[in-house]
Amino acid sequence: MTDRLTLAATLTGPDRPGITAALMGAIAGLGTEVLDLEQVLVRGQVTIAVLLGSLPEDLDTLEDRLAGTCARLGYRLSIDEGVGDNPPRARRVVVSLLGRPLRATHLAEAGRVIAEHGGTIDRIRRLSRTPMTTLEFIVSGTDVDRLRPALAATAAETGFDVSVSPAGLSRQGRRLVVMDVDSTLIQDEVIELLAAHAGREAEVAAVTGAAMRGELDFAASLHHRVAALAGLPESILADVRAAVRLTPGARTLVATLRDLGFAVGVVSGGFLEVVAPLAAELGITHVHANSLEVADGVLTGRVAGPVVDRAAKAETLRRFAAAEGLPLSRTVAIGDGANDLDMLAAAGLGIAFNAKPAVRASADTALSLPHLDAVLYLLGFSREEVEDAAAARAASVG
Ligand SMILES: [Mg+2]
């Protein structure tokens, strides 16, 4: 079958209704088989590529009918006679490129790295135009483990974001998304908001910064910072809960993941007293964080129970995945700090979100624009799909 004569026809022209009907109608009745058909539409210009098999003896009639239809419609036509179907697309990976703006320079560099690693770009589609441009490439002939670090390094140097994932079934179906909280789900570091009430914000912020850059042991630094809160009335927790600002796109991300039936969790080196109500409001079911010890209505300056540190965050991801019956290959972890690194490494896809340089350098994927809903584009959903889902939610509430 594969060595049979086939004909690849490519048509380009202004989009209008009924093109496919006109094209296929012209050759209907010749017994021709459609082996492949793809179409792209960019700013009103449509390109249709069709691969035809079971060709008639009289190829001229087929080609004349195609040419006549294209002439009538004002389309350019190119015809290539050849043999067989498309070659099989093996070792496929998905490469997502994000930029604001995404420039030709970025694509030149990405394309060069993909080619240097043996990759062929089979298909490209745009997933978003705002707030950033996202293009998704389906690439064959290369491996995630080789391509990912090379593209990540080029992206960091050239100034765009990139994600490389296996194209298999793990991209389809249900997944678990686990987020860090401070400076990921929310814009703030809760310990700093708490410390402001004790008049020690600057001191605590300096320690937090060093810990998130990986310069300090997390647990020791947490004990040190929480000690600064000793004697504060428990009531400040409500003030801090009210002051927390969600990261742009956080609500959209969580609501869309819930619409998809995905599992969502948060794990935080911050505090359950602030994280749990926030998670409940967003409908996030899996929650794990530290607890502040309270006695007689005041914070004691101690953490209650074991500290949620770097290792505990990765362990929590595994625990949430097990509870959902999902393998780690179907998990996505998102975080910004050094204490997120083990969790990002353990997940099927680890995303460094507006991360400290050491974290960005170690993660699979980095997002440098402050929009959490861009994670949806990395998972393969388009802005149109996300907006349609938001409109459907609004309609069901209204
Ligand atoms: Mg964080």
TrEMBL record:
EC number: 3.1.3.3
Keyword Metal-binding: yes
Cofactor: Mg(2+)
Catalytic activity: O-phospho-D-serine + H2O = D-serine + phosphate; O-phospho-L-serine + H2O = L-serine + phosphate
Transmembrane segments: none
Pathway: Amino-acid biosynthesis; L-serine biosynthesis; L-serine from 3-phospho-D-glycerate: step 3/3
Statement: the UniProt record of this protein carries the keyword Amino-acid biosynthesis: yes
Keyword annotations of the record: Amino-acid biosynthesis, Hydrolase, Magnesium, Metal-binding, Serine biosynthesis
Ranges where the Phosphoserine phosphatase ACT domain occurs: 94-164
Entry's Gene Ontology molecular function annotations: hydrolase activity
InterPro entries noted in UniProt: ACT-like_dom_sf, HAD-like_SerB, HAD-like_sf, HAD_sf, PSP, PSP_ACT
Matching Pfam families: ACT_6, ACT_PSP_2, HAD
Family recorded in the similarity comment: Belongs to the HAD-like hydrolase superfamily. SerB family.
Protein name as annotated: phosphoserine phosphatase
Provenance organism: Propioniciclava soli
